[in-house]
Amino acid sequence: MKLNKFSMLLAALLVLSMTLSACGSSKEEGGKDSGESGSEDKFSVAMVTDVGGVDDKSFNQSAWEGLQKFGKDNGLKKGNGGYDYLQSKSDADYVPNLNTLARRNFDLIFGIGFMLAKPIEEIAKQRPDNHFAIVDMVVDQPNVASIMFKEQEVSFLAGVAAAMETKTKVVGFVGGMESDVIKRFEAGFRAGVASVDPKIKVLINYTGAFDKPDLGKSAANQMYSNGADIVFHAAGATGNGVFSEAKERKQQDPNANIWVIGVDSDQYDEGTVKVDGKEYNVTLTSAMKRVDVGVYDVAEKAKNGQFPGGQTITYGLKDNGVELAKTGNHLSAETLKAVEDYKNKIINGEITPPGTQEEMEKFLSDLGVKP
Amino acid sequence: MAKRVTKVVIPVLAVILGLLVGALIMLVSGYDPVMGYQALWQGIFGDPYVIGESIRQITPYLLAGLAVAFAFRTGLFNIGVEGQLIVGWFAAVYVGIAFQLPAYIHLPLALLAAGLAGALWAFVPGILKAKLGVNEVVVTIMMNYVALHVTNALIRQVAGKDMTERIHETASLRVPYFEQITDYSRLHGGIFIALLAVFIVWFILERTTLGFELKSVGFNRDASQYAGMNVPKNIVTAMVISGFLAGLAGAMEGLGTFEYVGTKSAMTGIGFDGIAVSILGANHPIGVIFGATLFGALKYGSLNMPNPPAEIPEEMISIIIAIIIFFVASGYLFLWLYEKFLKKKGVK
């Protein structure tokens, strides 16, 4: 009797733990012989991902693409003395992974994501002769370069595009965890929308996770059902659920006016949907955050002996660190013109998109919108 | 006697079988299993740093496994170890930051806070089970989510961002001497607390009236009631002690490994792994040492497998661990079939 209950619970439990730990796993074919090729004099770089993994279709992947490009441009091979990455499966893995790469003598080691800030700080203190860089967070150590992005600038433009294109005058924002970075996305987006038309309603939903497409899907479902025709997501893999909801609606009615604005990378391919042999696409545009550009740039600087240790480099619209994707030509000429106008205004400092809750509230109330 | 032997033999066989099947999978997918297991071995015992980190990884598993085992001996399935661990982690770090006290008060206070937070979290399903007969499995699972999101909100409230500051050194479990001998690994003094907990749990279960009553309730609730034991009280006691242990596991992370707490987008997994640790250890305190060591070592050692020269994806180790649990679980099934088979034979 007891055995029965036990095994039943065990089965239930195993299913549970499997689903919980079944997030992003990579199929990286690292089996090729990279060996210890004689490239001692070459500049080598490596990175540690956060728990999202290297194929998250988001900033980890983007960073790895930047490193791969850097490797290719400099004739490096994957592996020791070239370029490489290590994935982290839990928060506890960051420190050992960083340490392993330091012991493998990489000249510059990147930590991708704010979760690695404390681990990098710790290792940087222990290994003052090694060079590190962190994305999305500032770490104040002489041997750490901090790479930041002005997400609010590009999401402002995304907001402008959404406001110009919406027919229902209702748009949505789906966020991941309520972190500083995602807040910048939200603040910029709402400010952009309000700048075009303060009367447009913006629905906000924070799902609390970056790895739960089901939550993204139900959030998007609610928004579309409540009249939104464009939903902007800044939620990593959770945002994949936003895409699947939009595509399902498109499948039921190919004429439906349903759009998604992607994030981090150009998510045009995510939005492709086939209905009766005809291809449609629901990706209006994407608010691209070029982590690859930042990573490449810092690697290049370090290679030339100008490692920006102790400094914070912020990439914005001005240096193409963030930009709005135009794949698919879904934006009208009028919209493109408005986007271009606002872009210029942001670059020459006429408009400063808000980056925090307080700044956003002030920005919106100046426009007469209740935040 | 024979039963005791099978209790030891089954997990050991399961582990060996799991490793063999793991090797087979590596072979099939075109990796060198010898290289793979060598990298794994090096990742666990290769040098002082990894030995330190392996022990560091084992520490919370010990306490999480104990928490599950303790509840299980009373016939309760505490799947809420995960949530109790998370609130314990937060409570420990909060005390570590908010107060400034001498170390001999600060550290015990932080540990106590973690234990009490975990105990409180386990008290809810305990009292519901005892008074209303609500299934503790459902309640503890749900309490995990409550814990995750409540602590996330509290961290944001307290720290104003996604991560707290570091705890004061007076609350830290880290020992400079350990850092010295293990090349700056995060090995901390918590391992002694965990081992002490193993002994205390063993003592309670095997040498005290309380332990006898708890186990008795686990064997047969009605008979215990009939014998005059207070069953509801025992259920609550078991859950609270289990939760206290889980909270301490959180303190290992908060005061030792990380020394801070950050918002989480998902469960840590330590609590769930604790269930497997407990099962591997046949729900016995001493067995938990075996289970935790194996689990922690595999988990940490696997981090070395993607590095040259092995270059095996670390996902492989997840498969191996899953297979080991699978074999242990089905081991009980084998035992059951085996006993049935024997009985039939006996009749004949």
UniProtKB/TrEMBL annotation, chain B:
Molecular functions (GO terms): transmembrane transporter activity
Topology with respect to the bilayer: Multi-pass membrane protein
Membrane recorded as keyword: yes
UniProt entry tagged with the keyword Transcription regulation: no
One Pfam family here: BPD_transp_2
One Gene Ontology CC term in the entry: plasma membrane
Keywords associated with the record: Cell membrane, Membrane, Transmembrane, Transmembrane helix
Transmembrane segments: 12-31, 86-103, 109-128, 187-205, 235-258, 270-296, 316-338
Top-level division of the source organism's lineage: Bacteria
Subcellular location: Cell membrane
Record protein name field: Branched-chain amino acid ABC transporter permease
UniProt source species: Caldibacillus debilis
